[in-house]
Amino acid sequence: MSAYHLSESKSIAMMKLLALCFFVISLINIPIAEARIRHYKWELKYEYKSPDCYKKLVITINGRTPGPTILAQQNDTVIVEVKNSLLTANTAIHWHGIRQIGTPWFDGTEGFTQCPILPGDTFVYKFVVDRPGTYLYHAHYGMQREDGLFGSIRVALPDGESEPFAYNYDRSIILTDWYHKSSFEQAVGLSSIPFQWVGEPQSLLIQGKGRFNCSAANPPMKADVCNNTNPECSLYSTTVVPGKTYRLRISSLTALSALSFQIEGHNMTVVEADGHYVEPFVVKNLFIYSGETYSVLVYTDQDPARNYWVTTNVVSRNATTPPGLAVLNYYPNHPRRSPPTIPPSGPMWNDVDSRFNQSVAIRARKGHVYSPPATSDRVIVLLNTQNRVNGKTRWSVNNVSYDIPHTPYLMALKENLLHTFSQTPPPEGYDFANYDIKVVQNNTNATTSDAIYRLQLNSTVDIVLQNANTMNPNNSETHPWHLHGHDFWVLGYGKGKFDPINDPKKYNLVDPIMKNTVPVHPFGWTAFRFKADNPGVWAFHCHIESHFFMGMGVAFEEGIERVGKLPSSIMGCGETKHLLKP
């Protein structure tokens, strides 16, 4: 036989073998994972809406608030084209909980990773969702988030993979508080002398819907301004089938309020927090802080002849805001049929112990524990205080109140524009021995700064958040802190002043949950550990809108030399203007 025929025979045999392999794969149904591209086109506009029956200007995405839910699978690429049609306002969108590995310029944090998107411009975000779980997106420019620019991100496992818990249906619910004043009005008051506090929100919204009592308004409001018969503010209703298990992805994007969430007559089993599996535990009410996400399992085992209340209420503040209401609609009852009972009241607003105990109870699920490094390379203690700086009321960390720079850090560091922000390192602690966290302090040496913490790439860093008294006697507030670009191990919570000698001995190094947002409770401390392994510049701040606006935040830089070529689309402000080629 000729060499040609031998070669042809081998080719045919190889083709047959490949065909057989694909046939066998199809028979045994082995999934072949393939990452996909999820493409979204959004237009941001100001529109008049009445989410709680009071008509005001809100920011919508394609005419909606909350905006569209981003649905993807692990390792998919998400592309979002954002057209800013706000006419008179800049914007930026942060992808909350998405670590942006390899794409720090698309974190969406104005002043840190990009210049704002100007009116009329279109900006394209492109990033990989590398972990399954429940995440968020929201404005990260000024205080725009509370004007309605937010939504959910739901990342599923690849086809063929399953989670360590079973459920029949999957729902996303965002909890927010709602002000009738715009974020612009609030920002002016917060920056004024004398200081004008934003006050308590007028309403609580569940999935963008609530009900303000128009008839009780003082002074009275006209019907074209506030109307309780407006169908736009009908209560949110989610329909369920009796005898099924529902996964409810509960997220909070409140501007100010810590919340309790409860469903009348139903227990909730907590199974996920910030994209990580939780060792399951059952709650009657779920405490949730701004920036947190949870998944709870709810079994619909109650009387199917009626509907049930879903409620939220403010905790940690003696608030005047009425509870938020929604309806758990048992099919086939009408979705608008009110439950026959009085909505259940939540826990007492000042029950700190219950909130503290829930925080401690959240641990990593067995079989899904990612062990933290046994020790850290660096410890940074951040004292949370309220101060007066140059006559203005500010929030501070170690007596330094944070200012966002005009030239974003990512460009300033990458392009060696170091003169655009302070090079004096911020303090890594406070006067532990002499500072009394239980009394009002003068803090006369408080300053403002835009300096950053420089972290060694791949080092392990411990952060200790220490709470203290505000400028009001016997008052300490709950602060939810959010870290961009990372997840961290929650090592422990404590009451009173953190003891740097003895408290680290009590850290949970066995099964700590990983999160991206964590509360520090009144007059208490919270400790966590993270690996500085994501090159870029990352914000770490209180997720209460007014608190971050007033200076409650810091910036971390790590491995800036490893960051790739910056896209020109993120430039155009401050001293980045000259970097754009004509």
TrEMBL record:
Listed name of the protein: L-ascorbate oxidase
- Major location, coarse class? secreted
| Catalytic activity reported | 4 L-ascorbate + O2 = 4 monodehydro-L-ascorbate radical + 2 H2O
Question: Where does the source fall among the domains of life?
Answer: Eukaryota
**Primary enzyme class:** oxidoreductase
User: What would be an example GO MF term here?
Assistant: L-ascorbate oxidase activity
Q: EC number(s) in its UniProt entry?
A: 1.10.3.3
Gene Ontology cellular component annotations, sorted alphabetically = extracellular region
InterPro entries given in the database record: Cu-oxidase-like_N (IPR011707), Cu-oxidase_2nd (IPR001117), Cu-oxidase_C (IPR011706), Cu-oxidase_fam (IPR045087), Cu_oxidase_CS (IPR033138), Cu_oxidase_Cu_BS (IPR002355), Cupredoxin (IPR008972), CuRO_3_AAO (IPR034267)
Q: Which family does it belong to?
A: Belongs to the multicopper oxidase family.
What is annotated about its quaternary structure and interactions?
Dimer.
The Plastocyanin-like domain covers which part of the protein?
Answer: 45-156, 172-332, 435-559
Its needed co-factors are: Cu cation
Q: Which UniProt keywords apply?
A: Copper, Disulfide bond, Glycoprotein, Metal-binding, Oxidoreductase, Repeat, Secreted
Kindly give the Gene3D superfamilies that the UniProt entry links to this protein.
Cupredoxins - blue copper proteins (2.60.40.420)
Q: Where in the cell is it found?
A: Secreted
